[in-house]
Design a protein that fits this description.
There is one protein chain. The chain is mostly helical and 169 residues long. It has one domain. Helices cover 83% and strands 0% of the residues. The protein contains 6 helices and no strands. The longest helix is centred in the first third of the chain and has 49 residues. It is elongated, with a radius of gyration of 21 Å.
Length: 169
């Protein structure tokens, strides 16, 4: 009987610790995705500036280079461009792919869709630069949130597991 009780308490502590770790991961994942998005937008800017490839082809190439959730956003937008305008495909691709970005990050990125494929190359490049500036701010906020909250959620998971275990003893 005592053996089962000890095993149960260990599972409770491990389970709550894992839950705390999962909650803390979203902060580092958000920071990672923002960095990947900045990198992808820089690739996009360079490609439209120096090559004459179409936006769907550039997006497909970016999706192969970047990978992860950000790569899926670009892949989904590329495939949607067969049926929709480039701007609409870009905006709608965010609802198709599960990501760790906050709503304010997504709103900033969706703003790129306003001019995507609508203006000349210089207009699109300037819009990408504006979005990149906003992403720099969001990236700084993500770093601060990660520092502030990541350790807290891990500790909270462990402490809550220990608290439950002590109560059950």
């Amino acid at each position: 009987m005592i053996f089962f009780k000890i095993i149960l308490l260990i599972f409770i502590i491990i389970g709550s610790s894992l839950i705390g770790i999962l909650f803390s991961k979203k902060y580092s994942n958000r920071e990672k995705e923002l960095k990947e998005m900045k990198s992808a937008l820089n690739i996009f800017s360079t490609k439209i500036k120096f090559t004459y490839e179409t936006i769907p082809n550039i997006f497909l190439e970016i999706s192969n280079k970047v990978g992860g959730n950000v790569g899926q956003i670009f892949a989904r937008a590329s495939s949607r461009m067969k049926e929709e305008s480039a701007g609409d495909a870009w905006v709608n691709s965010f609802s198709d792919v599960q990501n760790n970005l906050l709503e304010e990050d997504i709103v900033i990125l969706k703003n790129l869709g306003r001019l995507l494929g609508q203006t000349d190359v210089e207009g699109q490049i300037s819009e990408i630069e504006v979005v990149n500036k906003f992403l720099e701010t969001q990236l700084e906020n993500a770093k601060n949130a990660k520092i502030k909250n990541e350790k807290m959620y891990r500790t909270l998971g462990i402490v809550s597991g220990l608290t439950i275990a002590i109560i059950l003893i």
